[in-house]
Amino acid sequence: MRQGKFGQFSSVIIFCMILFSKASEKLELVTEEELLNLIRSEKYVVVLFSKPHCEECNKFENELISTREDLVDALGAWVVKIENSQLIRLYSPSKEPVIVFFRHGIPLLYDGPVNDEMILHTFTNNKEPLAKELTDETFEHLTQAATGATTGDWFVMFYTNECVDCQRLQARWEAVGAHLKTRMNIARVNRGSTGAATGRRFDVFDVPAFILFRQGKMYRYEIRNYDVKSLVSFATEFYKNIRAEKVPVPKSPFDDLIAAIVVYLKENPWVWQFGGMTFVIGLIAALLVNKKSSVKPSSKKKAAKKEK
User: Fold this and answer.
1) Which residues form the Thioredoxin domain (predicted)?
2) Ranges in the chain annotated CATH 3.40.30.10
3) How many Å apart are CA 210 and CA 214, to the nearest integer?
4) pLDDT tens-digit map of 124-177
């Protein structure tokens, strides 16, 4: 009898010890410099962007702690947290808490429920970057956008290296890819360099820009709301409410040259201003020269009359 009571008492003590150890367990806290080094050097890094005295942050941390061992076993991932970091602005429009999964340095914003099983499922099923990088050389070959052929639908983001908003969208765009990976292809085109001709082909002047290519038609996302839910909704349903455009064939070299000049003038309005100023100065100079030339003969005639 005593042994039974002692066994029950021991079980209670062990249970309390487990609860205490779980309650005291925390994610490793890193600095911004340490985090950047991890992102550069490690294959997989899971980061909780947190802040002190935040109840919601504690919920996120507890769920990550629950799945940390599985993440380490399945991915060999580092699971850490950082507090009050300005880096969060690069990956999420929201404030703390935020979870970001880095794969080879490419961020994926976690936008699912605060649940350890869903976190594990999302990350283990998206171990590689999802958005394909398309260039002028590969775009038509891979998408077959003009023919609407066999490679499926493509949801494409146009960006430039200089666009800060585009950089901040990368983690969200990867999250969009995670939602749509079984339904369509997700891609990016650098309109400022390797995809400049492709950008001109589709009259993409401002970035970020999003176009859905589906069965030989294209649908422009023209809503200034870049959250994951809105982008996914557009690609799956809302595009039906948008006017479909026929996908243009690639421009001829001459047409592309004209388009490139138009884009250059649009992006460099000072050229117009300088050209207009030069024209005005030239016109004034021409008028002055013309006026002087018309005055000189009359002066000579007056001088000749005086001599007579």
Assistant:
1) 133-220
2) 22-125, 132-246
3) 13
4) 999 999 999 999 999 999 999 988 767 899 999 999 999 999 999 999 999 999
Query: Which residues of the chain form beta strands (DSSP E)?
Result: 28-29, 44-50, 78-83, 98-103, 106-109, 132-134, 154-159, 185-190, 209-214, 217-221, 245-246
* Burial of 250 per CB tally in 10 Å (0-12, 13-18, 19+): middle
Q: Check pLDDT > 90 for residue 257.
A: no
Q: In which band, very low, low, confident or very high, does the pLDDT at 267 lie, cut at 50, 70 and 90? A: low
| 132-246: CATH number | 3.40.30.10
Task: Please give the single-letter amino acid code of residue 69.
Answer: E
Q: How far is CA 211 from CA 34, 46, 145, 221, 247, in A?
A: 37, 30, 11, 6, 11
State which amino acid sits at residue 58: N
Residues 278-302: tens digit of each pLDDT: 655 665 666 566 656 655 555 445 4
118, HSE (Cβ side, Cα atoms, 13 Å): 10
Residue bearing tokens 């294209």: 218
Q: How far apart are CA 41 and CA 32, in angstroms?
A: 14
Angular region, 45: left φ>0, alpha ψ -120 to 50, beta rest: beta
d(CA 222, CA 293): 58
Pairing of strands 44-50, 78-83: parallel
Beta-bridge mates of residue 45: 78, 102
Edge to edge, the sheet with strand 209-214 lists: 132-134, 185-190, 154-159, 209-214, 217-221, 245-246
pTM over cut 0.90: no
Phi, psi of 213 (to 5 degrees): -105, 120
- 3 state DSSP class of 48: strand
CATH number of 22-125: 3.40.30.10
> What CA dihedral angle connects 61, 67, 70 and 76, to 10 degrees?
-20
